[in-house]
Amino acid sequence: MNFFNEAKSLIKVNIRDYGMYIALFLIMLTFSIMTDGLFMSSRNISNLLDSAGYIAVLAVGMTLVIVIRHIDLSVGFAAGFLGAIAAILLTQAGVPVYLTIPIILLLGIVVGLFSGVLVAQIGIPSFVATLAGMLIFRGALLQVTEKTGTIIIKDESFNAIGNGFIPSIIQVNGLHLLSLLVGLVGILLYIYNEISTRRNKLKYNFEVVSKGIFTVKLVFVSAIIAYITWILAGYNGFSWTVVIMLLTVIIYHFLTTKTVLGRHIYAVGSNPEAAHLSGINVKKVTYIVFGSMGMLTALSGILFTSRLQSATTTAGTLFELDAIAAAYVGGVSSAGGVGKVTGAIIGAIVMASLSSGMNLLGVGISYQYMIRGGVLAVAVIFDVMTRKQRG
């Protein structure tokens, strides 16, 4: 009985963290039943994760921007513009892929730092500064694509980023071996990280959950990773998009939870004045977060352009709103100082799952927008309510 009481108490206290996982599970279960299992087919899950990739990458950066109490509305058309520049470098300038990608990522950092300077140095509200950026990049995208309308990319290496899969090496009973090994490594890394974190907390006499709850959590999460890996391995394995998305999460999760910079970001978000008085360079943190957002915007543009195998005049439309929605659904707080990059990925998958499930059920696009808007509204209401309860 103590086990169930502890579990109930944990969920109640950490509802912000666990709520999105519960919501994702319920969404997947509902759509699986309504589509007679088609929703959880290998092909659909693979397509769902690939379609979530470029938004998930944006959502990771957007989470940190919202954590420090700002917003970035320019990321959508900036991603479209940078994707178009990548297409021009590849098709018209003849620049090889291995140079094009770092050039675009560096351009992204410059774009992000420009917004950071307007916000941190000049003091323009981020909403206004990035709204100006949105209009500028919208015009820039039209400018570079107006002659051809669509820039077709025929470079197979570049197109593989958004459409290719990691090699299978050999297949075991129709399953991709390398993908199975990647999933196994993921499970081992997760277990190692959780055990290491628990040991450190015990070392410094922090409160931890009981061994029973801890074991159930390890088994449950490992089972989910194993199941998703098995599903993907039965199709074409892990796509490069999913690999890039996972690497982004791992790197940013490490940066935000294990480094001084990560602690400074959350300190600035919780209380900028107190952070400044404690010696934290708030302007520097703002530059870093916006520069990071710019780099992830460039990466998102590369993923989207590669997936389409072309750059179009409408690329990037509403990306910023999808990223903001994914961040809020993933548990970031509108008041700043709260939010995890892992939550941003879950938020992106929740939104992609809604779209995928509704498409399979033949729900009209007008209703899809209304339902997704409703989900975002519920997420923000949930955030406000939990803050009031804690306050």
UniProtKB/TrEMBL annotation:
Top-level taxon: Bacteria
InterPro entries in alphabetical order: ABC_transp_permease
Residues spanning the membrane: 21-39, 51-68, 75-95, 101-120, 127-145, 165-192, 213-232, 238-255, 285-304, 341-361
Protein location: Cell membrane
Membrane topology term: Multi-pass membrane protein
Signal peptide: none
Keywords of this entry: Cell inner membrane, Cell membrane, Membrane, Sugar transport, Transmembrane, Transmembrane helix, Transport
Keyword Phosphoprotein: no
Record Pfam families: BPD_transp_2
Primary subcellular site in the record, as a coarse category: membrane
Role, per record: Part of the binding-protein-dependent transport system for D-xylose. Probably responsible for the translocation of the substrate across the membrane.
UniProt-recorded name of the protein: Xylose transport system permease protein XylH
Species this chain originates from: Cytobacillus mangrovibacter
